[in-house]
Amino acid sequence: MQADPKEIIDIGDRLLSEYPELFTEQYETNTRLVQRLASVDSFRTQTRLTRYITRKKRTRNGSQS
């Protein structure tokens, strides 16, 4: 079963609030962190979660890469 968008946002926001210093603007780094910190049921959900966190970090820091 795939996670819905609200679930991705909820999990992503929770991870960002619990580990704000760990996540970066780098997708590859965030992928490894999501694998370690979140128990997700599929590769697609993991990818969506990583993209959300990376996008949020880039927006928060003001860069638009």
TrEMBL record:
Keywords: Ribonucleoprotein, Ribosomal protein. One of its GO terms (molecular function) is structural constituent of ribosome. One of its GO terms (cellular component) is ribosome. The keyword Nuclease does not apply. GO terms for biological process: translation. This is Ribosomal protein S17e. It comes from Haloarcula marismortui ATCC 33799. The lineage of its organism: Archaea, Methanobacteriati, Methanobacteriota, Stenosarchaea group, Halobacteria.
